[in-house]
User: What shape does this take?
Amino acid sequence: MREILADDDVLTWEGAVSVEHTPGGSQAWRLPHDRIELFPGGVLRLRAAMPAGVRVVLGTDTRVLTGRAVVEGIEVPLDAVVDGAVVASAPVGPDGSFVLDLPPGDKRVELWLPQFGTFALVSVAVEDGARVWAGPSAGPTVGPTAPGGPGRRPRFVVYGSSLTQCRQAASPARTWPALVARELGLDLTCLGFAGEAHLDPMVARVVRDLPADVVVACLGINVYGAGTFSARSLLPALLGFLSTVRDGHPGVPVLVISPVASPRREATVGSAGLTLAQVRDQVAAAVGLLAAHGDPDLHLLDGRSVLGPEQTHLLEDGLHPGPAGYERMAAVIAPAVRTLPVPKSAV
Assistant: This one.
């Protein structure tokens, strides 16, 4: 096998906000790692270092792709995608090694990195004699002015909680953001941070500054769970977060998804004095107010239409969907995104 180090230019990193290359491996970050001190909270930083939605892309004719990574203590999943289809999946164990069997012929391989856990890629390896080239990129994901090529895929930025990071999905290419992106031909950047979707102003600025043709923001469940905002402060925080996102994306469709159903929480008053139903109402109120004040490109999808009371059997713990639940979410969200008016410059 012929080894290719993770920082080799033949490998393209997609879906990362930044990539940190070190002698010990290359780690994708979903926040700017060189300014990570501006994002307070150890858990947020930990989640940002998990490569949910990140792909390492190369062109090759190899039939076997192996690799080495640095992981910490738990087995994590990894997928190979060719022409939008998952062609191989492999666990990455504590030793960091993985093996993927690929179809024959020339192909663009997307290596979908684990959606949870610490993961730094050291290298990949192809069969001796196999050809390797830089796979055509969907367009860079770093920086607001990064140029895209003609015919590039529309850029799809998603923000949310654990229900957007999707640890419980079957594998990294089977999270709902990944399923939606592959079905609609979108270039995904996933900013799902488990337990950490608290409308942080600095995270709003990241969403604002990322190239985006479609934005989806799943808002409210972590706010309820942690009691982040009260009845007085939640609506202003929602308005500020969405307005910051809009500042960087005039004319770009933004779909806001309110919390999915969670029967035990709907009428239960949280630590900040709000029920989940009240949080959902505040999310809807923020979208309504901004739309009424001149934002026709802001849209609302009630989370209960994504996973409602009749689908609570898909919630493994009363809150987090399992693999079938994330497939259901994708099946509802994809048509909603398809109907949005994506700017013509993106296609």
Q: What stands out?
A: Confidence is low (pLDDT under 50) at residues 139-150.
